[in-house]
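User: Here's a structure from my thesis project, written as structure tokens. My advisor, Dr. K., wants to see whether a designed sequence matches the one we expressed. Can you design one independently, without my sequence as a hint?
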């Protein structure tokens, strides 16, 4: 009877020590730890999708002594840099921890990463490009293909910039 009571007491004390906790801190439409220049209500660059990514910043706890505090900024940096991106959309931030003599506490950021389009991607008609614009519901990533479908096209001003013009005739520099 004494052994059963001792085993039950040990199990009840061990279960919380083996558990961990994950807490959702928030959902964000657009976040970035990089400088993003806005001009005229929109970002001055075009973006291509870099893919879904996860970034994490973890600090360890050894015998009740923490080795530091994890940073949301570092987790977001790790996420963005894992795919050489510039900003995240549809981002989710979480906090997690576990402990049993040695433990860890972490900040986790997950989202869809976007990177600035290179000059070759800007010139490639098969690469879908996006602009971050200030829409009716706040900031939105808008595909340049949707602009093309509406009769607007990008025309090179010089090797690094493009302008939107209506119904441009390719190669002539004239409008219809």
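Assistant: Designed independently from the structure alone:
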């Amino acid at each position: 009877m004494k052994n059963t009571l001792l085993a039950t007491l040990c199990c009840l004390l061990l279960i919380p020590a083996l558990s961990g906790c994950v807490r959702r801190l928030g959902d964000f439409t657009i976040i970035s730890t990089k400088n993003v220049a806005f001009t005229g209500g929109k970002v001055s660059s075009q973006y291509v999708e870099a893919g879904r990514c996860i970034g994490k910043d973890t600090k360890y706890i050894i015998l009740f002594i923490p080795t530091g505090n994890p940073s949301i900024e570092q987790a977001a940096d790790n996420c963005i840099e894992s795919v050489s991106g510039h900003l995240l959309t549809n981002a989710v931030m979480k906090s997690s921890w576990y402990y049993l003599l040695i433990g860890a506490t972490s900040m986790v950021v997950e989202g869809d990463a976007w990177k600035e389009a290179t000059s070759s991607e800007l010139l490639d008609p098969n690469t879908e490009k996006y602009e971050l614009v200030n829409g009716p519901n706040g900031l939105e990533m808008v595909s340049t293909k949707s602009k093309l479908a509406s009769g607007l096209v990008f025309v090179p001003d010089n090797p690094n910039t493009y302008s939107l013009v209506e119904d441009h005739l390719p190669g002539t520099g004239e409008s219809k």
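When you compare it with your expressed construct, this may help: The longest helix spans residues 2-18.
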